[in-house]
Design goal:
929 residues, two-stranded antiparallel ribbon, elongated, 38 helices, two-stranded antiparallel sheet, 65% helix, mainly alpha
């Protein structure tokens, strides 16, 4: 160490020697040739040592280029352009020097040279009064310390200073000094220099010093300066340390007088408070809900305010720590949940970093706090102001954690993650990074639930934290009711559409596993994870990876839904079952329906409570074997059942008979009880329509003219014959009108409703991408049939009118059957009467006639009774015709006002001749707009 100090001194001497003897007036071969030159050398060396031993530091930034530009600008301004160019060239070479032996701190060298140049310039311009100009002007203006030249001062230093001594000791003594630390000897030997007898100049300069201030500190500073001046030489630096030192010590004394507690103790108490621990003076006040000093503690108000601000960190720490303790120790796991536990763990991790910081600060707090005027033995001391700087970043984080704690006190699961995510939308990078780090920990359980649900169909949600809820249901209701979204637990960083896809993907896996007993979804899930670039294990997803989550869900949904539809279409033959329902429940298999009506008609005409379901089931089997239905899949035919609806007293079999289709798992997910009940409504409507059609066909078979009835009409009396022809014609006309309505309505239902809806269903089933699309297509198909068949809720009045028309037609059928049964009875009785007349002529009989018979009363009574019966039947048919026309006109007038369904084609077929329009000209214009 001493060798290094000696080397520094030697280098300084060499530098001064080179700077002085490069002058054209100097003789470098003989530096002691002139006493003036030796004196200049000694004085310059002392001047250099003064600079190196001083505490002066520049107040500007260290910038080589800026300093070089400043020097060049100064030379150019002084009119020394050539020197400026020379300096620029030298600086370029100097800046390129690098490596061993080169100057590292180039800026300091430039700054030193510039300062020396400016100081020389000032000394050239100063007046001969060195004490006045040299001491005050140089020191007070921020220049270098002033040295006095004896030959330029009246009454300067003694001759002893002109010798080869420097500051009272020989030059070799300077050479033997040990480094910069030995420069303190210069300070000790200041008193050995003899002052000149320039008392007048000294007095004047003392007055200048006294004018620096009139307060007590300035007076004491002047006294100190005078005392030091009387003892030797007066030393003034850039910022006179002798004056500052006095001021700082006085300030320290004042602080000690005002403060009852030292700053070191307060710093220690603040650090305790930041850990939630009461210190000796700084304690937590329950009433004020804050840390602070007692009222009677003698501490400046500014210090109290600063302590209160610093202790806010302790208050926030206490709040967050209390939440963690309450959540982890006092509350049950069900109330906290896995997301809440992850949140507490993330807060604990932040506390670990916080504890590390406090440990570092406590180590620094062990070092004493130096006075402002002193250099501390170590810069790692801790004051309240330094503590405020250290606490700036932890304060931001702790405030944010406290806000999160307040927001999440009553939340858990996805709701908690969403609430924390809302605070992450912040422009401060520190807050943004902190929140992202926290959310990665908090959302880890939530994303693990998503991964497990999407790829495995497992709902690992013990504490109801996930946004998918499950409930125990039957297998047929698993898809519709088994799982649903819990909107309250849906975090804001997962969109509603993404949540729906997540829900559907997990439902598809569970549907395949439970209802279809299929395991092919596992391969599809593995392929989806590989396509999305994620792993099927834990930790594959995390917060901030929304794109990866969406990609995984999309790939999994696409593959698993495709596999599900393949299983439903191929393994469980969904389309074939839909077609079977259309053919049997919607009466699309014509030969089967016709044969069924023919064989069950007699049975269904009986009272409903007397009909045997087993007998009807046998008749159904007969109808299947006797039609093309026998060639269908046995599994489909086995599902067809006879069902008797609940009936009341007086109901006939026609009113309660229906067919049912047994849709088993998993088809009952589509064909639920609600769906089958709507199919039953459609079947009842179509069955009644077919019954009406079947009845009209039966009437036509009965009333169809033939040669037998023609001969019978010819034998009747003229009055009866005319009445019979008139009644038959009325019946025929009314039958034509009813048959026109029924046949066109049936055509509309079978072709415009059923076939068109089936075509649309087939197209939508081909385009379906998941089970929800399949269910939606079937629901649309069923809704279309109900609405177009006038069975919807908005067609209630029209439906009632339609069923009233059916009842009128069935009543007409019973009247027509009764009419023609009587006619056939009359024909048979007339034939019997003719044969009896022939026998009576051959063999007279005493007996007259059968009691209660038309022909037993004679031909006159027969004619009278027949005419009366025909008139009554004609009146009844007229009444039915009027009732039918009135109801039908009301029905057709309601068709145009049905806005929810297009019935133009039906209206056109029912009134293509505009017959009903002409009947009602007042309303006809409104019917077909």
């Amino acid at each position: 160490m001493e060798d290094d100090d000696q080397r520094v001194v030697d280098l300084v001497k060499e530098l001064v020697h080179r700077l002085l003897y490069t002058s054209p007036h100097s003789n470098p071969q003989n530096p002691s040739a002139s006493s003036f030159t030796q004196q200049e050398y000694n004085q310059s060396l002392k001047y250099s040592l003064r600079i190196l031993s001083s505490r002066m530091t520049p107040s500007i930034a260290a910038d080589d280029s800026a300093m070089a530009e400043s020097i060049k600008r100064r030379l150019a301004t002084a009119g020394k352009s050539s020197e400026a160019l020379t300096f620029a060239d030298l600086y370029a070479k100097f800046s390129l020097k690098d490596g061993p032996g080169s100057v590292k701190n180039k800026w300091a060298v430039l700054y030193l040279l510039k300062t020396i140049s400016e100081d020389r310039k000032v000394r050239k311009n100063q007046s001969p009064n060195v004490i006045s100009n040299g001491f005050l002007d140089s020191a007070l203006s921020g220049g270098l310390p002033t040295l006095f030249e004896s030959d330029g001062i009246s009454g300067g230093f003694g001759n002893s200073s002109r010798n080869s001594n420097v500051g009272g000791f020989k030059s070799e003594d300077v050479g033997n000094s040990r480094g910069i630390s030995n420069l303190e000897r210069l300070e000790k030997n200041r008193g050995d220099w003899n002052l000149v007898s320039g008392s007048d100049n000294l007095s004047e300069n003392m007055k200048k010093l006294k004018g620096l201030g009139d307060n007590s500190r300035s007076l004491r500073a002047r006294e100190h300066v005078e005392n030091r001046y009387n003892g030797g030489i007066l030393m003034v630096s850039k910022d006179p340390e002798n004056i500052r030192d006095i001021a700082y010590r006085e300030f320290a004394d004042l602080i000690k007088e005002e403060n009852e507690v030292s700053e070191v103790v307060l710093v220690r108490d603040v650090l305790y408070a930041c850990q939630g621990i009461d210190g000796k003076y700084v304690k937590f006040d329950e009433k004020a809900d804050a840390y602070g000093l007692p009222e009677l503690t003698k501490v400046p108000r500014a210090t109290k305010i600063m302590i209160r601000k610093l202790c806010e960190l302790g208050w926030l720490f206490r709040k967050v720590k209390g939440y963690i303790t309450e959540s982890m120790d006092q509350l049950s796991a069900e109330h906290v949940g896995t997301v809440g536990q992850a949140f507490c763990a993330a807060l604990q991790d932040e506390f670990s970093d916080y504890y590390k910081l406090l440990a570092v600060l406590e180590a620094q707090a062990m070092n004493p706090i130096p006075l402002v005027s002193e250099h501390a033995s170590s810069s790692n001391y801790l004051s309240l102001r330094r503590l405020s700087v250290w606490f700036s970043e932890p304060m931001v984080k702790m405030r944010l954690m406290a806000v999160l704690v307040d927001s999440c006190k009553v939340l858990k699961g996805g709701a908690m993650a969403g609430a924390i995510h809302m605070h992450a939308q912040h422009g401060d990078p520190l807050v943004h990074d902190f929140m992202n780090k926290l959310l990665r920990r908090v959302c880890s359980p939530l994303f693990e639930m998503v991964r497990s649900w999407v790829l495995e169909g497992e709902l690992d949600d013990l504490f109801s934290e996930f946004f998918v809820l499950s409930q125990p249901v039957k297998a047929e209701s698993l898809w519709r009711e088994g799982y649903r979204l819990h909107s309250a637990m849906l975090p804001s960083f997962i969109s509603q559409s993404l949540a729906q896809r997540i829900l559907r993907t997990g439902k598809s896996i569970n549907f395949l596993r439970v209802c279809c007993e299929d395991r092919g979804w596992a391969d599809a899930a593995t392929e989806a994870a590989a396509a999305a670039g994620t792993s099927t294990g834990r930790g594959g997803l995390g917060y901030g990876e929304t794109d990866a989550l969406e990609s995984l869900v999309a790939e999994a949904a696409k593959r698993i839904d495709k596999h599900l539809l393949e299983v439903v279409y191929k393994q469980y033959k969904f389309k074939e079952h839909c077609l079977a329902i259309k053919r049997y429940l919607l009466l699309g298999q014509g030969d089967f329906v016709q044969y069924l009506m023919d064989i069950v008609g007699p049975e269904l005409s009986e009272a409903a409570n007397t009909i045997s379901t087993f007998k009807l089931a046998g008749l159904l089997e007969s109808a299947i074997r006797s039609s093309n239905a026998q060639y269908d899949d046995p599994d489909i035919l086995d599902r067809l059942r006879v069902k008797m609806m609940p009936h009341n007293t007086g109901d006939r079999g026609w009113d309660v008979f229906s067919l049912d289709y047994d849709a088993r798992v998993p088809l009952n997910t589509v064909f639920t009880e609600s769906v089958m009940s709507r199919y039953l409504r459609i079947f009842n409507f179509l069955w009644k329509l077919r019954r009406v059609e079947h009845g009209l066909i039966g009437v036509w078979k009965t009333m169809k003219p033939n040669c037998v009835t023609s001969r019978f009409f010819a034998k009747l009396p003229q009055a009866v014959k005319l009445q019979l022809i008139l009644t038959s014609r009325k019946c025929q006309v009314l039958w034509d009108e009813m048959n026109h309505f029924v046949s066109n309505l049936q055509y509309y239902i079978m072709f415009e409703v059923l076939e068109v809806s089936w075509s649309n269903l087939s197209k939508e089933l081909e385009a379906a991408k998941d089970l929800d699309d399949l269910l939606g297509a079937h629901e649309k198909y069923l809704h279309s049939i109900l609405e177009k068949s006038l069975l919807g809720e908005r067609s209630v009045n029209l439906n009632k009118t339609l069923f009233t028309l059916f009842d009128v037609i069935l009543r007409f059928r019973s009247h027509a059957d009764r009419l023609y049964e009587s006619i056939y009875e009359l024909q048979s009785r007339t034939t019997d009467s003719s044969s009896r007349d022939k026998a009576r002529v051959q063999r007279p009989s005493k007996t007259s006639s059968e009691s209660g018979s038309w022909l037993g009363e004679g031909r006159k009574d027969l004619t009278r009774r027949a005419g009366e019966f025909l008139r009554n039947m004609g009146q009844d048919i007229d009444a039915i015709g009027k009732e039918y026309s009135s109801i039908f006109e009301g029905f057709i007038s309601q068709l145009p006002i049905q806005q929810h369904v297009d019935l133009k084609f039906l209206m056109f077929r029912l009134d293509f001749t505009e017959f009903y329009t002409q009947l009602k000209p007042s309303t006809g214009g409104k019917l077909f707009l």
